[in-house]
Design a protein that fits this description.
The chain is an alpha/beta fold. The chain has helices at about 15-25, 40-50, 55-65, 75-85, 100-115, 130-140, 160, 175-195, 295-310, 315-335, and strands at about 5-10, 30-35, 50-55, 65-70, 90-95, 120, 145-155, 195-205, 215-225, 230-235, 245-250, 255-260, 260-265, 270-275, 340.
Length: about 350
């Protein structure tokens, strides 16, 4: 059987997670990488023994790949994803799908129309601790979630933003700590609550950065249609990237996720725990520790499902709720008013 062909658009830091993961797939060939910065494309092509391109449309048109990985700045996702889907390619895009929720909906509609798969990389759902929590919630042992909270306290200096021509901008990144750093934790919160948010009240501030106008701190309240009350707090001016904290207060116990480690303490004294599996460690050159190994698991499932003609996890229709939540946080924070969501 011929190998599936994959290409990567964007050769920035996150692309290593995709390239290495693709190279570990026995049924996939990395057929090309592309970046408008020629040195990045050339370096990646040499590193991964593939072909460098500088025009992403030319790469897609020439190779006609089975799958396109989109690892570009946020504002470019919509055009690239819709084009690739229209050319008959399956797509795996980095988060967020888009800056605007309406664009995310257009991308999902394009996937449906094309009959191809569009997956959004929320790789933390694949971490062993995350999956233990999901399985235990699904089993019903914890009963209903009553309330939840999420905490992200990381560090992004002015120097971090000065090195980028798109980070920390409203028009290219779409925001700051919410859309870039906290989005994965908010996605897990949304995933665990198993319900749609119906009201969001949020505040946004820039308290510690002089080079950017987007928010470096955010806090708020989320009401879900199944009655769950959730709160979140996120900053990116802490002293270091502290482990993310997420807690679920349930009828029959308390769930805590700290970093990648999950601890479930039942009211009857039982304790379940799961951390990163050392046997599933992969070497990603220059990768950030908090990226974990979820990309490898997510991308492996993506190609396995393509080969078997099955639907993978994290498809666009599944994660649209997270993108609407992010959109609502920004609307509430910018207007100072509560946002009520109608899902009809």
């Amino acid at each position: 059987m011929d190998k599936m062909k994959a290409v990567i658009i964007g050769c920035g830091k996150i692309s290593v997670m995709h390239a290495v993961s693709i190279l570990h797939q026995p049924n996939v060939e990395l057929a090309g990488v592309c970046d408008i910065k020629h040195d990045r494309a050339d370096s990646a092509a040499e590193e991964y023994s593939t072909t460098a391109f500088y025009d992403w449309k030319a790469m897609v048109d020439e190779i006609r790949p089975d799958a396109v990985h989109v690892c570009t700045p946020h504002y470019l996702h919509t055009e690239m994803v819709i084009y690739a889907l229209g050319k008959g390619c399956n797509v795996l895009t980095e988060k967020p799908m888009a800056i605007e929720y309406e664009d995310a909906k257009r991308m999902n509609a394009a996937a449906v129309e094309s009959g191809k798969v569009l997956v959004v990389s929320f790789q933390n759902r694949f971490n062993p601790g995350s999956m233990l929590i999901r399985r235990t919630l699904d089993s019903g042992e914890l009963g209903k979630i009553i309330s939840a909270k999420a905490l992200v306290t990381w560090n992004r200096s002015d120097e971090y933003y000065s090195r980028s021509d798109w980070k920390g901008t409203w028009n290219k990144e779409g925001g700051g700590v919410i859309i870039d750093q906290a989005i994965h934790t908010l996605d897990l919160l949304n995933w665990y609550c198993g319900s749609r948010p119906v009201m969001v009240s949020a505040s946004l501030h820039n308290r510690a950065h002089s080079l950017i106008k987007v928010e470096d701190s955010a806090e708020g309240y989320i009401k879900y249609d199944n009655g769950i009350n959730a709160s979140f707090f996120a900053i990116n001016y802490y002293g270091y990237d502290a482990p993310v904290e997420l807690e679920l207060f349930c009828e029959n116990g308390i769930v805590k996720l700290v970093g990648e480690k999950a601890t479930i303490t039942f009211n009857d004294g039982r304790v379940f725990s799961q951390d990163r599996d050392p046997s599933k460690f992969f070497e990603f050159k220059n990768a950030k520790q908090y990226w974990g190994v979820g990309h490898m698991m997510e991308i492996s499932e993506f190609y396995s499902c393509l080969e078997k003609h099955m639907k993978p996890r994290n498809t666009a229709d599944e994660v649209l709720s997270t993108h609407r939540l992010i959109d609502s946080i920004y609307k509430s924070g910018k207007t100072g008013e509560n946002v009520y969501l109608n899902w009809d």
